[in-house]
């Protein structure tokens, strides 16, 4: 994944089955219809403007952005009941999976592979044939977590997953322990735990989160999430804050709270929400620090898409958060209608507009399913 570090160098079990939508606050019918119509227009524009041959957006978009786009369109189908793009989305994900579970030459980073793993996980949670996707998500997690750095990483806080897969990569990314890679692994573990009910994934999610907390990627005082740190000593932290780093841990915490009921996850979730409100939603409008001077690059223009996606899903999954999250999502959706998130008009901006627009529908739709539901 290309983000600030890459630029500098050259991310108790419950037994209930799936709960159908049971939100505290549903949107009015008029607002839902308006959001659905606006989302339909945006989705149609994306599909017509950005053909994804073999599951990939055209240059200059990296593979992980294509994974994010497939996730966006899967959620679009779920939120609007418009299934016309489903076969195209499924075929694109399968094309990129190939025989090696998303390990082709266009997947240089652990984060890249994890983004595709989340695409498969989302299909498992929402697709009519979910179990076809579960092995892909499981295999991605197993492959990536096997790269947990057991020696020479972060002094007495051994562990973490490096950004890049290849230790010989000349940009040094193998030794960059970044928020998005570890956050994606945490979230995938949490979602696998909730979906399968297997304790193994609960343990893995706890391990990854606790390492992120111990090494300081997650600020223990204010829940800011910093971009990353360099092994072997991890003595300095890149303090850059990006919304998707915060959001990936936030939704993972929401999943763990829903699945385990452990009060510590409520504390963590509340902390991440407060950090989001403070850093990325002043005046209830989603923002990135690069928006101030319109300097967001191709990657950074996608970040608000993931933030909106995971805030919407959190509001649906943990209804007690709706008083804090729905005003942000509704104000941002209203701003999108007024042209607030046009950016440079690239695929990232279009994806962000669609996610921001459709996130307000999340509380009115069925929750992600569990195995057997």
Automatic annotation (TrEMBL):
Belongs to the glycosyl hydrolase 76 family. It is an enzyme of class 3 (hydrolase). It comes from Pseudocercospora fuligena. Pfam families: Glyco_hydro_76 (PF03663). This is mannan endo-1,6-alpha-mannosidase. Its EC number is 3.2.1.101. Residues 1-16 form the signal peptide. It comes from the Eukaryota. The lineage of its organism: Eukaryota, Fungi, Dikarya, Ascomycota, Pezizomycotina. GO terms for biological process: carbohydrate catabolic process; fungal-type cell wall biogenesis. Transmembrane segments: none annotated. It catalyses: Random hydrolysis of (1->6)-alpha-D-mannosidic linkages in unbranched (1->6)-mannans. GO terms for molecular function: mannan endo-1,6-alpha-mannosidase activity. Keywords: Glycoprotein, Glycosidase, Hydrolase, Signal.
């Amino acid at each position: 994944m290309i983000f600030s570090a890459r630029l500098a160098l050259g991310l108790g079990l419950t037994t209930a089955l799936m709960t159908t939508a049971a939100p505290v606050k549903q949107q009015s019918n008029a607002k839902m219809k308006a959001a659905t119509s606006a989302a339909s227009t945006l989705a149609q524009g994306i599909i017509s403007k950005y053909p994804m041959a073999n599951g990939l957006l055209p240059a200059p978009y990296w593979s992980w952005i294509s994974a994010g786009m497939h996730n966006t369109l899967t959620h679009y189908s779920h939120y609007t009941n418009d299934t016309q793009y489903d076969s195209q989305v499924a075929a694109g994900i399968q094309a990129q999976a190939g025989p090696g579970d998303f390990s082709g030459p266009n997947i240089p980073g652990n984060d890249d592979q994890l983004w595709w793993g989340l695409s498969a996980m989302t299909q498992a949670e929402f697709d009519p044939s979910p179990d076809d996707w579960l092995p892909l998500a499981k295999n991605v997690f197993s492959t990536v977590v096997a790269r947990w750095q057991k020696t020479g990483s972060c002094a007495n806080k051994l562990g973490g997953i490096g950004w890049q897969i290849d230790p010989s990569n000349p940009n040094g990314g193998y030794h960059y322990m970044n928020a998005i890679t570890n956050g994606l692994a945490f979230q995938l573990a949490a979602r696998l735990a909730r979906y399968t009910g297997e304790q193994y994934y609960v343990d893995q999610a706890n391990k990854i989160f606790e390492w992120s907390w111990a090494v300081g990627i997650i600020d223990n005082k204010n829940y800011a999430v910093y971009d990353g740190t360099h092994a072997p000593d991890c003595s300095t932290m890149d303090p850059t804050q990006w919304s998707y780093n915060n959001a990936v841990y936030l939704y993972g915490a929401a999943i763990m709270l829903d699945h385990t009921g452990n009060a510590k996850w409520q504390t963590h979730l509340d902390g991440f929400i407060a950090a989001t409100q403070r850093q990325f939603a002043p005046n209830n409008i989603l923002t990135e620090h690069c928006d101030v001077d319109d300097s967001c690059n191709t990657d950074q223009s996608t970040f608000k898409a993931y933030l909106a996606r995971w805030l919407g899903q959190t509001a649906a999954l943990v209804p007690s958060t709706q008083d804090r999250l729905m005003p942000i999502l509704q104000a941002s959706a209203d701003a999108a209608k007024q042209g607030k998130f046009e950016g440079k008009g690239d695929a990232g901006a279009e994806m962000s507009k669609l996610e921001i627009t459709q996130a307000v529908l999340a509380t009115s739709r069925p929750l992600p399913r569990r195995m057997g539901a």
